[in-house]
Amino acid sequence: MTVAIRVATANEVPILNAIRTSVRENHMSLERMADYGITPEVIARVITTTGRGFIASVDGVDAGISIAEAEAGCIFAMFVLPDYEGMGLGRLLMAKAERFLFEAGCRDVWLEAGAVEGLRAHGFYAHLGWRHDGLMPDGQLRFVKSRDELVRGPAA
């Protein structure tokens, strides 16, 4: 198995959206994304200005994405196609996104995850050292991580 991660270009927004809309948990359609103001144009602008998108491929198949946005200091997206879960792609994509944010000067970063009970993402983020930090105004769970935690590692 050959895994490669590349920086996404504006021309690859359809790939980012295809992976985002193909997940089982925390699924969101293109229409619902647009309702939240997440359009292809917005994504293209983010990944070519204050953010970066990353695409993980396995044996040439685009299988996972992450998007980090430095101005807001957040992980905007991290998704892996269902058939490619459990291969470590999420961990690799999160590491790329976190590194981008911390190298961009962010000290404390955040992400939000669905508030649905038992969502696997909650355990995944906790395993990577993210701390639950309450609720976002829209009811999503907020997770945070500081640059110091990345350097020292999460507290035991």
Number of strands: 7
β-strand percent reads: 25-35%
Spatial extent as radius of gyration: 15 Å
Helix count from the secondary structure assignment: 6
The stretches of 5 or more residues where confidence is low (pLDDT under 50) are 151-156
Give the rounded overall mean pLDDT.
Answer: 89
User: What separation lies between the terminal Cα atoms?
Assistant: 33 Å
User: How many domain regions?
Assistant: 1
How would you sum up the global shape? globular
The CATH architecture classification is 3-Layer(aba) Sandwich
> Residue share in helices?
25-40%
What are the secondary-structure elements, in order, as H or E? EHHHEEEHEHEEH
InterPro entries: Acyl_CoA_acyltransferase, GNAT_dom
Pfam families: Acetyltransf_1
Protein name: GNAT superfamily N-acetyltransferase
Organism: Kaistia geumhonensis
Structure characterization notes:
The chain has 156 residues and is an alpha+beta fold. It has a single domain (3-152), classed as Aminopeptidase, CATH 3.40.630.30. Helix content is 33%, strand content 29%. It has six helices and seven strands; from the N terminus they run βαααβββαβαββα. The protein has helices at 13-20, 30-35, 40-48, 89-103, 120-127, 147-152; strands at 3-7, 51-58, 61-69, 74-80, 108-113, 131-135, 141-146. Strands 1-2-3-4 form a four-stranded antiparallel sheet, sandwiched between helices. Strands 5-7-6 form a three-stranded antiparallel sheet. It is globular. Residues 151-156 have low confidence and may be disordered.
